Amino acid sequence: MWFSGIATLQRAREFNFKHLGPKGRAVWDRAPTAPYGFGPLKIDPHMFAYAAARSSIVGKKLGLRGQIAGLGLASAALSYLKKPPSGELFLHHNFPLLKDFVGTSLTGTIGAAIAYLEMLDLGYVWHGHWEDCVKSGSVAAHPDFIFAKPSAICLVDAKGTTTSADSTAKQEWYRQIYKNRAVQMKFGGTANEGRVIATVLSATDPGVLVTAYGNWLAKGQQGAKTTSHPKAISSVQRANFIDAFFLVGLANLAWKLVGSNNPGPLDQGSTRLLSIRGEQVYVGPIRLTLTIDDEQWVMQPFCRKTIVDEVIRCIGNDEGFPMQSAVREGGLKITHLDNLSATFIDGPDGVGAIFRLVKFPPFL
Prior knowledge:
Blueprint: E1 7-20, E2 26-28, E3 41-43, H1 45-54, H2 64-79, E4 81-82, E5 90-91, H3 100-121, E6 126-129, H4 130-133, E7 145-149, E8 152-161, H5 166-177, E9 193-200, E10 208-215, H6 230-248, H7 251-258, E11 272-276, E12 279-283, E13 288-292, E14 295-304, H8 305-316, E15 333-337, E16 342-346, E17 351-357
Parallel strand pairs: 1-10, 8-9
Antiparallel strand pairs: 1-2, 1-3, 4-5, 6-7, 7-8, 9-10, 11-12, 12-14, 13-14, 14-17, 15-16, 16-17
Helix pairs in contact: 1-2, 1-3, 2-3, 6-7
């Protein structure tokens, strides 16, 4: 069981899309980039649980139920992951004994949460489920998520697998990513790149990441890539904050973003506006109780007031999305404050979570 300490996942291989061959098949660079990125992906149980809530695979549309179900699956998944002193991540040797439908749910949860952490670590800021970002749904194969940062819109599919993922990553990139490259976002514009992220886990070998990546955006002058369409970024930001505000407890604001005309006061809900760490944040109700280091911790989501104020401003005038404020890129940040006996997870979108020991009262 993995309930404490930082685990590492090596970024083993990245296959880079080159072009389509004469028969319409994807052609890849002769050899993958191995390893890729800047060192391994480092995560801990707090980050994993938060990522599972934000990337919940339960249900196709936005809402709190899927997030809470995702948190429950995160707790179950942690029971079947193990981290030896060497720091790598393995499946527990009892994992193969699970019923098929249980094992599939857990590997899917693991794959989605780790893909979320990977994309944030690669510099992306906002994300949404595919169905909530595009103009119209499709019964055809499609990616799980769409991630955005000021310079890119990326279609992302997460794979949790216990077998070799090289062929799967490349095949699914063409089938689920490339074939959807021209799908319009809800407010207009399209994605300019796509990535399949496969988390390869077993009971005998350390877990690794295998990805397939391609950028189909045309080159601009002097080889510089053109910027992403602002309306495409707006589509992802909208989905990101509907998801986040339902989780935090700002349901009126979430429903306003969905399109409700009179949801009630936008800055009210099941939250409290508190001053913590020298800034004002909206802190939500307890969403999860988790055992870490043989201690019971409760998780409460939060959102910075400055972000809530800006979303309300975007709704209230013609300027609208995308949000213009500066954002922090570079993944989740984790800090522990002894004076509060709390661990903070800070996301680049201004949303995060507080984990606090049960013996201390929650922030309510």
